[in-house]
């Protein structure tokens, strides 16, 4: 019973945790459908984010998203794999792993285009 109530509260706790973070413009990279691999142009965006992050002092939050099609568990895992891939690229380009926090957001609806939900947002504080 307790487990269920904690699970149900997780989205609220996550939203509260994100609300307490210092605001920073997100750097966004997009993925192809059903993929956790970035194309070369998106990799260049992550490399530029890593350069920016190495000159900042705060945490680097990597939020992973997936589209609403398919099962929720699959899309949550996909959003985590996307965030992990970006975190690995940031670390490979000089960002200390202990500064990187991965936040899989799972499936989210899109408003205008399906690619909106196939993304990772990089937020650099400080």
From TrEMBL:
Keywords: Cell outer membrane, Membrane, Signal. It is found in: Cell outer membrane. The keyword Membrane applies. One of its GO terms (cellular component) is cell outer membrane. It comes from the Bacteria. Transmembrane segments: none annotated. Coiled coil: none annotated. Pfam families: OmpA. Residues 18-126 form the OmpA-like domain. The keyword Signal applies. It comes from Neoroseomonas marina. InterPro entries: Bact_OuterMem_StrucFunc, OMP_bac, OmpA-like, OmpA-like_sf. This is OmpA family protein. Residues 1-19 form the signal peptide.
């Amino acid at each position: 019973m307790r487990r269920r109530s904690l699970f149900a509260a997780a989205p609220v706790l996550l939203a509260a945790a994100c609300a307490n973070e210092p605001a920073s413009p997100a750097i966004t990279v997009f993925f192809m459908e059903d993929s956790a691999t970035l194309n070369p142009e998106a990799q260049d965006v992550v490399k530029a984010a890593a350069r920016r992050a190495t000159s900042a002092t705060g945490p680097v939050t990597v939020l992973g998203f997936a589209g609403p099609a398919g099962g929720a568990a699959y899309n949550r895992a996909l959003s985590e794999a996307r965030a992990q891939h970006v975190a690995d690229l940031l670390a490979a380009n000089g960002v200390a792993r202990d500064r990187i926090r991965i936040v899989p957001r799972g499936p989210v609806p899109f408003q205008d285009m399906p690619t909106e939900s196939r993304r990772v947002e990089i937020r650099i504080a400080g």
